[in-house]
Every structure is written in structure tokens, then in C-alpha cells.
Amino acid sequence: MATKLFDVHNHAQRQWAQVHGDRTRITLPQTRCMCVMGTSPEDWAWVQSMVEQLSAPLSTATASMDHESHDSPPHLVPAFGVHPWRIERMLGDKDCAALHPVPASVVMTPPEIRAQLTTMSWYQRLAQLLDSHPHAIVGEIGLDKSARNRDTGSVYPFAAQTAVFRVQWELAIAKQRPVSIHCVKAGSYLLQFIQTLAKDWQRVKKLHRARPSSSSTAAALRAHANTLLPPKIMLHSYSGSPDILRQLFQLPVDIASRLYASFSEAVNRRSPQLPERIHAVPLDRLLIETDENSLDDIDQPMEAILHEVAKVRDLRPSELAPALFANACRFYF
Ligand SMILES: [Zn+2]
């Protein structure tokens, strides 16, 4: 494989945990850059150890890559977050059941829910990890109305998901980090939430309308958007309605310009709606990923999804790959 690729979302720390962090027991993939997504506090430690022991400096990721050989260390971006499937176990049944939902129609998490969550040890650890890893992003966070807890057979409690999602979203804003979002059968919540933020942005725009338009107005509106949304937002392995994507990308530019969507072989390939989803994303906002758990399973699925997206967009893989790589670098750095 000669193409430079960036796997924007995987869980290779699971293999790293299995080999107990022994780098002699892993084979590095040809895919030179990737983001390793933590999903729970136990998982974060493996992301941290993998990135600290295996990664080349991220500051050189874009500059020096053309001169690197295939056996030089890869560039691993760490991601720390709580996945919707991990909330119940992390909080315990009692704390989980005590959480009230955060409606999609409110701009900020209500103070009592914020206070409940942000004083917990997992939240404080997450904030510390972001501080100690300046390139780290917030992920994998999200909303899932479909998956079921294998032990109980019930879907994961959505009220708690909204609360934990929203405080992590706000942490990403506070630390100015991108987010990677898992969203399954919950696209209407996410769309309504981002539309709520867009309305708040429009409200501030109206306040400025009375004054003559100037560059300071544009700067003030961008600054307001920075208080509402993280700097970059990725919908990872997006499997929802193409119409939701179209609506999101049509929002005002201060909001829509932050959005990216990523597709994978593992999650998206078999869906008949994949071409329509790919077409709903502007070319400069498309990303590809594996969502795999091992460095052994990166290169082949990356090639496969690259070819799939190229076919849909009527481009040669060799033309598309540099554009996708540039998108990923813009997202992460
Ligand atoms: Zn994932």
C-alpha cells in the first residue's frame, strides 16, 4: 500500500491490553496515523500507555511523514471519553437511574445535573487526561437507542446517556478539543440538539443586526459558536439517515464548518444507504476509519473503505486518499 491513510477511529488499545503493552508482540500497520478511542475509565489507561510507548511525536505527524519509512513508529492520537454502552457499568445502577434526561431543546446542561456528574471521579480523571495530553480529543462519546446490555437484555438508559453525553460535550468546549460521536438510532436527538445551538447562534446574530456589519460582528459570532460547540465534531461510522446529514451540513457556516462524517468497512459497508450518506457529506468533511480493535485489522479495511468511498464519489482512490488525509489532519491538528 503506497497511499498515506489516517484511520480516524479505532480501538487498537484492546490488542495493546491483550499483549500487556509488549511492543514485541505487535506488528505495526502501514497506515501511519490513527486515533485510538478510549471508551471507559479502565480503557483510558491502555490508550494512555499505548500512545506514550508507541507513538511518534504528534507535532511531526503532518510535516515529516513523507520522509518516514514503514517501520518508523506510527502517529497515534489519543481519545478519552465515555461510550454510551459503558455508562451503566461506570456509574452503577443507582447513580445511573438517578440521572434526569437533558432535553435536546436546551442549550446548556441544567446546573443540578452538571453538579451531579462533574464532581464524580471519572469526570475529573477525564479532565486531567485531556490536560496532560494536549493533542487528545474527547471520544468515544455518544447516544445509542438500539444496543442492549447483554446482562439485562435492556437498551442502555437513554436519560443517563443524554446527561453523560452533554457534560462531555461541554468539557470538549471548555478544553477546545474535537469530539468523536457514536450515534445509533438517536440522530433525531443529535439533530435537534445542534439545531437548538444554531438557534442560539441566530439569536446572537439578530442582536448584532442592528449594528452595521463588520469583521468584529463575524468574530463575535464565531466566538459565540465556540461557546456552544466543540471546534470539530465527527459522526463516526455514521449509520443514520442521510437527510439528517444534509440538514446538519446546511446549518450556518459557523456551525456546519465544524462537522465531519466518517465511514468504516466494519459498520457501514453492507448498508444500501451508504452511497446516499457518502453523497450527503461535503468532500472536505469526509473521513474514513476502521473501528477495529487490533493493529492487525487496520490496513485491509482502510483500503476497502477508501475504494468504496472513491467509487461512490467517482474518484480514483489515489485522488481521494490525499483529500481524506488532509481532512483528518485538519480535524485532529
Ligand atoms: Zn468505536
Describe this structure in words.
By secondary structure, the chain is an alpha/beta fold. It has a single domain (7-15, 32-41, 75-332), classed as TIM Barrel (Alpha-Beta Barrel), CATH 3.20.20. It has 14 helices and 8 strands. The protein has helices at 13-18, 41-54, 87-97, 111-118, 121-132, 158-175, 187-209, 215-228, 242-249, 253-256, 265-268, 274-279, 299-312, 317-332, and strands at 6-10, 33-37, 75-80, 137-144, 179-184, 233-235, 259-264, 286-289. An 8-stranded parallel sheet has the order 1-2-3-4-5-6-7-8, with helices on both faces. Helix 13 crosses helix 14. The protein is globular and about 60 Å long. The two termini are 24 Å apart. The mean pLDDT is 93. GO terms for molecular function: hydrolase activity, acting on ester bonds. It comes from Dimargaris verticillata. This is Cut9-interacting protein scn1.
Straight-line distance between termini = 24 Å
CATH class placement: Alpha Beta
The number of E-state strands comes to: 8
- Overall shape: globular
Query: Going by CATH, what is the homologous superfamily?
Result: Metal-dependent hydrolases
Q: What is the radius of gyration?
A: 20 Å
Overall number of domains: 1
Approximate helicity band: 40-55%
Largest pleated sheet: 8 strands, parallel
Strand order of the largest sheet: 1-2-3-4-5-6-7-8
SS summary, helix count: 14
